[in-house]
Amino acid sequence: MNSKQQDPIQFYKQIEAEINKRIHARTNTRAFTAAVGKALDSHLRKLRIYKRLITRWLTRSDLATKDELAALSNRMVDVVGDIDSLDESIYQIINQQQANQRKLTKVRESLEEWSTFLNSEVKDQRSNSIKTLENELQELKKLFEEEMDHDRK
User: Fold this and answer.
1) Strands (E), the chain
2) Which DSSP letter does residue 29 get?
3) How far apart, in whole angstroms, are the C-alpha atoms of residue 94 and residue 85?
4) What is the pLDDT of residue 78?
5) Measured distance CA(50)–CA(57) in Å, rounded
6) End-to-end alpha-carbon separation of the chain, Å?
7) Do 55 and 65 touch, CB atoms closer than 8 A?
8) What is the spatial distance between Cα 4 and Cα 9, in angstroms, rounded to a whole number?
9) Is pLDDT at 149 greater than 50 in this prediction?
């Protein structure tokens, strides 16, 4: 069965090779090359004429030409790149701002703790100095009373 399947394949390959030889024989001549060259030159001249006509028509109609659209497209690509860059910068700034906000919150909390601590220390100092003054006054009073008692006797 493999031999039957290979026979059609070989047959088509031989046909393809024969067709390629004939095409090559007819196209591999100076006359053919010259004719193709003339046809291409003629085609290119017509394309240049059509391009000039279309450009003039578009200009008169106040419409964008192919070159103007290409320039606009390039500018749009640049603007999109700039927007992407700005978007990335804004994203980084927002993240940094959030991090700074968290740090600021911690600093505020620390300041509040210190303020509370210092207020309690001031109150303690005041109460201690008042108690100390009261004690000193009590001692003076005792001394004064003792002296008064001593003078009376």
Assistant:
1) none
2) S
3) 14
4) 97
5) 10
6) 150
7) yes
8) 9
9) yes
Contact 65, 59 (CB under 8 A): yes
The residue with tokens 């606009």 is 72
Please give the structure tokens belonging to residue 14: 């031989």
Q: Which residue is listed with tokens 């106040």?
A: 62
Q: Tokens 């090559």 identify what position?
A: 24
More confident residue, 31 or 130: 31
> What is the 3-state composition of the chain as percent helix, strand, coil, each rounded to the nearest 5?
95, 0, 5
Tell whether the model's pLDDT for residue 118 goes beyond 60: yes
Q: Are 43 and 51 in contact (CB under 8 A)?
A: no
Q: How many CA atoms lie within 13 A of 139 on its CB side?
A: 6
Decide if 32 contacts 26 (C-beta within 8 A). Answer: yes
The tokens for 110 are 């620390």
Q: What is the pLDDT of residues 72-115, one digit of tens each?
A: 999 999 999 999 999 999 999 999 999 999 999 999 999 999 99
